[in-house]
């Protein structure tokens, strides 16, 4: 269903209510002008003015099965008619079914699931589990990371959103992860980057005191802060360090779990088994808030006779779990994982590499599946970013102009700092995908002009 004609009266009403009464996240309230969205279907959404947009950000990289997927909508409707809600202390059919399905696709030896309301509280509870099991409080996290907006999660976060929220959890220490294009270790190859990044991490463990460190948390593929695919051997190396020093390895898969790179869990692509996996977003495409922690059998056993001191009123909410079960059915019926791998290897990767050859503002492209980044620079030799780190206002003008060009052509992009991320719904058609890449290709001429100025 699409909007057949502009509805400017409704547009004005929605804008007035929003501007008068809604307090938006991460924003200076008087400096924003949120788009009133009338509806969406598949990989497209539209406003009340009659404009439609290809959703190349999957909203917040959570809409894996697209807008208004009929199977997910029907699952919610059916569940609402049967049992709208029940407290988490009771057993529930869809909650248990979803937990079973998640455990079946998780790495071997991870058979329990603790449900939360989203990704931030999944990370909060994973850290709590690690601290309780090890008796050690300190947690290591990367500088280039985002783990959520709650107290410990925002402290774990490495990006600038942490700054204004400090101090929060004083037991968090940050370290440099691998980033070959802008190596902190002056590496000349992926092999060197892996070796030197692991050496840096081990030195951090030693200097901070392994006896004080309960967990290391990593986004399996760094999301908002760069779509940084770990080089070969890095994640297994982290696993080995955790085993050596008695540290719990937490894999944050809030963004990349459930098909984003063509795997149920992204760790499967890197030959590593963590102790805890956090998830949210793609588990049910965000149709109803849901997240959770997949727990190793060893950690779960710790709480067999010791109570876990944590819980949420809406943990495993039936209306959230029902579309989660439907998500598994859609993935299996429609071969979602296979099509994500195919589109990434055959369409997105080659096309982005062509753009890198064509546009002088493109420093590097990287990614996997339907999760890619185009890093924009002023100079390919010096790799100076097109806009400064954490740029805002006039300093961010080149990226703002690029995004505006995309929107004018009918594509809603995901931009962050000096990067363009390509993260459309996993159900996007090949024709839509090519059309969206065409729009980005054309919009990059704006970035080229900015780089040359």
Summed up, what is this model?
Keywords: Pyridoxal phosphate. This protein has 453 residues and is α/β, with parallel strands linked by helices.
Note down, in words, how this protein is organized.
With 453 residues, the chain is of the alpha/beta class. It folds into two domains: 8-68 and 335-452, Alpha-Beta Complex (Aspartate Aminotransferase, domain 1), CATH 3.90.1150.10; 70-333, 3-Layer(aba) Sandwich (Aspartate Aminotransferase, domain 2), CATH 3.40.640.10. 39% of the residues lie in helices and 17% in strands. The chain has 13 helices and 16 strands. It has helices at residues 8-21, 58-61, 70-82, 93-105, 119-134, 151-156, 190-208, 234-245, 297-302, 318-334, 336-358, 397-408, 430-452, and strands at residues 37-41, 44-47, 52-55, 112-116, 138-142, 172-175, 213-219, 248-252, 276-279, 291-295, 362-368, 371-379, 384-385, 411-412, 414-416, 419-422. A seven-stranded mixed β-sheet has the order 4-10-9-8-7-5-6, sandwiched between helices. A hairpin with a 4-residue loop joins strand 12 and strand 13. The longest helix has 23 residues, at 336-358. The mean pLDDT is 97.
CATH first level of the largest domain: which class?
Alpha Beta
Terminal Cα separation, in Å?
Answer: 44 Å
Total number of strands = 16
Instruction: State the fourth-level CATH superfamily of the largest domain.
Output: Type I PLP-dependent aspartate aminotransferase-like (Major domain)
CATH topology annotation of the largest domain: Aspartate Aminotransferase, domain 2
Strand order of the largest sheet: 4-10-9-8-7-5-6
SSE order, as H and E?
HEEEHHHEHEHEHEHEEEHHHEEEHEEEH
Identify low-pLDDT runs. none
Question: What is the 3D shape?
Answer: globular
Query: What would CATH call the architecture of the largest domain?
Result: 3-Layer(aba) Sandwich
Beta fraction: 15-25%
What is the number of helices?
Answer: 13
Average pLDDT, to the nearest integer? 97
Instruction: Note the main sheet.
Output: 7 strands, mixed
Number of domains: 2
Structural class determined from secondary elements: alpha/beta
- Share of helical residues: 25-40%
Taking all Cα atoms into account, the compactness measure Rg is 22 Å
Pfam families: Aminotran_3
Protein name: Aspartate aminotransferase family protein
Keywords: Pyridoxal phosphate
Family: Belongs to the class-III pyridoxal-phosphate-dependent aminotransferase family.
